[in-house]
Design a protein that fits this description.
alpha+beta, 25% strand
């Protein structure tokens, strides 16, 4: 089962992710924050799109639950770390990170002379 050390290691392994203090939590962001670790290190909040969260909560209700507040309406979801395998946690963090990472820069195409 996953724990806080796994959460931190996996989150920081995702390209461009930084860790910072956010009130009493540790937060992880790429372009924007995509996950936070609770002070008790037993749970974390992960930001999913509404359809992603709905699926996670149906498939693994012991591991995922929508936050019951305005943050929950924005897709933030509580994850019980001990209810997840490392692979499940990695998949959840990667999904959230994919929405939070910086957009890839498009290479400017040079005009070819006529």
């Amino acid at each position: 089962m996953a724990n806080a050390a796994d959460f931190r290691r996996i989150a920081l392994s995702l390209e461009g992710t930084t860790e910072y203090q956010h009130f009493d939590r540790r937060a992880f962001k790429a372009r924007v924050t995509f996950a936070t670790l609770a002070p008790d290190a037993l749970t974390a909040n992960i930001k999913f799109a509404p359809d992603e969260r709905a699926l996670k909560c149906v498939v693994a209700p012991d591991a995922f639950a929508a936050l019951d507040n305005a943050w929950g309406l924005r897709g933030w979801t509580r994850a019980v770390l001990a209810a997840l395998t490392e692979d499940e946690l990695s998949a959840a963090l990667t999904l959230a990170w994919a929405r939070a990472r910086p957009a890839e820069k498009k290479r400017r195409q040079r005009s070819k002379p006529a």
